[in-house]
Amino acid sequence: MRHLAPFVVVLLLLGACSDVPMAPPQPPAVDVTKTVASRLEPRAAVQMFIDVVNTVEPVAERECRLQSPQLNCDFRIVVDDTPGLPPNAFQTLDQTGRPVLAFTLAMLGEVRNADELAFVMSHEVAHHISGHLARQRQNADLGAVVFGELAGIAGQSSADQIRVAQQLGAAVGARSYSKEFELEADALGTIIAARAGFDPVHGAQFFFRIPDPGDRFLGSHPANAERVAVVQRTAAGL
C-alpha cells in the first residue's frame, strides 16, 4: 500500500491487527435484510467497513487455523487510498508472510450493504486459506519452463526469443487454473461469511453490478452467473 487515508489508521486498529485488543464481535450495524439500492454515504461506508472487519476477521482467522494450520492466519485488512484506482479487492502477503486483504476506496464505494462487503472479504480470505497465491506461482513457473523448452526445440534459440516464450508461458500458466481458484474461493468464502452471521447469497448480488467476464479464453474470472450458482449451492448445503 502506498498511502493510507487518515481513517484507515482507525480501521486497522479496529480490524485485524493482532497487537491491538479487539472488542468481541458485534452484530453488523447495517441492516442486512434489505438491499441498499444506492451507494452509501462515506461515513456510513466507513462504519460498515469497521463493523464487517470486526465481525469477519475473527471467524476468518479461526477457519484458517482449522483448515490450514501451517499458514500465517493473522490477517491484516487495509484500504489503499491511491487516487484513481478502480474498484478492487485482493489478497497478498507482506514481506513477513502475513496475509493482507486490501480494498480500494472505489471498492468500498461500490458495495451496497454489509452482506456484500462480508462476502467479498470472505472470498479474499478463502484465497489465502486455499493457498492460491503459491499454486498460481507454481503454475507460472511451470509454464515458463515448458514454453522456454518448446522455443528451444522450435529453433528459437536466441536469448530474447526464449525470454519472450518464458514470459508468455508464465502468463498462461498463472491463468490456467485462475477460474477454478475463483470458484473455490467463492465456495469457501460463502461458508466463512455465513459463519460470521452474514447472508452470502445476498452478498453475491454484487456480481450482478460488475462486468461479466463471460467465458473468455484464459480469462482470470468465471462468468458471474456461474459464481452466483456456486454460492447458492454452497449456502444451500450449510
Question: Could you characterize the architecture of this molecule?
Answer:
This protein is mainly α and 238 residues long. Helix content is 55%, strand content 7%. The protein is built from nine helices and three strands, in the order H-H-E-E-E-H-H-H-H-H-H-H. The two termini are 36 Å apart.
Strand-residue proportion: 5-15%
Helix- and strand-based class? mainly alpha
Strand and helix order = HHEEEHHHHHHH
Q: What value does the average pLDDT take?
A: 73
Biggest sheet, spatial arrangement of strands: 1-3-2
Oligomer: single chain
Which terms would index this structure?
3 strands; disordered N terminus; 238 residues; mainly alpha
What is the element layout, followed by pairings?
Layout: H1 6-14, H2 42-67, E1 76-80, E2 89-93, E3 99-104, H3 105-110, H4 114-129, H5 132-153, H6 159-175, H7 178-195, H8 200-203, H9 224-236
Parallel strand pairs: 1-3
Antiparallel strand pairs: 2-3
Structure summary:
The protein is mainly alpha-helical.
